[in-house]
Amino acid sequence: MGVVVESAMSDSDFKKIASFIEKNVGIKMPDVKKTMLQARISQRLRALNIPTYSEYIRYAFGRGVPNEEELVHMVDAVTTNLTEFFRESGHFDYMTQSALPYFAANGKRFIKLWSAGCSSGEEPYTLSIVMQEFQRKNPGAINGYSVLATDVSTKVLNRAAGAVYQLDSVKNLPMDIKRRYFLRSKNRDDKLIRVKPEVRKYVSFARLNFMDDDFGFRDTIQMIFCRNVLIYFDKPTQESVIRKFLRYLEPGGFLFLGHSETIFGMNLPFKNVAPTVFQRI
């Protein structure tokens, strides 16, 4: 029989965990998120057989020496992950019709893309599919590409690397796309699909925290997709993260944000070229 977890998290325990999340991950944790945080952290208490939130905090934060492994589990529990294939499809239309022809016209033959906040992998695999479709329809325009996919959550990165999804996740895709880029499970009762190896081989996964000072990249990037991630940060943190992106996004490169995100009001070297699409000046 599992441990009985205390029913309510105290305000002081909430503030300790919320402060850690805000400082180390950048996600806003106002008081209205206490119920959500309590529900997610309670899963860690049950997994560890720890009955109280106070004991869990002592376990995670230690006395001067934090439990780094548990802090990763804490971040995994708190971060929200919601995504789907070809989400906000207008961005991929712009990529195909404008961004990639722009690079091809300027002699760029190899395209590096970054899915920043890739969650369970649907976005980076979509980017790989879009690149292959463009190459298929425009032979010689772009010779090669790579997709870097990063997230702060090791849990979703592991799932993303597996590239296995529910069949329903592709139900709205055209049949030719499904046949060209996905494999159906041999056991039809499973209702699972897997992204084909020829799509996966161009995508690499890594853990990355936007709060880090140096992301460790050595090359410039042509397109950055950071969609529906910045909404969890306050305005100063959003601007700080985008300024870090600028270190790696080459002049003329494109930044794609989520439909409810914007850089307006920030003094940044971008021009708005389409809804939530910004080109570096």
UniProtKB/TrEMBL annotation:
The keyword Methyltransferase applies. Its EC number is 2.1.1.80. Pfam families: CheR, CheR_N. It comes from Candidatus Avitreponema avistercoris. Residues 2-281 form the CheR-type methyltransferase domain. Gene3D superfamilies: Chemotaxis receptor methyltransferase CheR, N-terminal domain, Vaccinia Virus protein VP39. This is protein-glutamate O-methyltransferase. The keyword Methyltransferase applies. It catalyses: L-glutamyl-[protein] + S-adenosyl-L-methionine = [protein]-L-glutamate 5-O-methyl ester + S-adenosyl-L-homocysteine. One of its GO terms (biological process) is methylation. Keywords: Methyltransferase, S-adenosyl-L-methionine, Transferase. One of its GO terms (molecular function) is protein-glutamate O-methyltransferase activity.
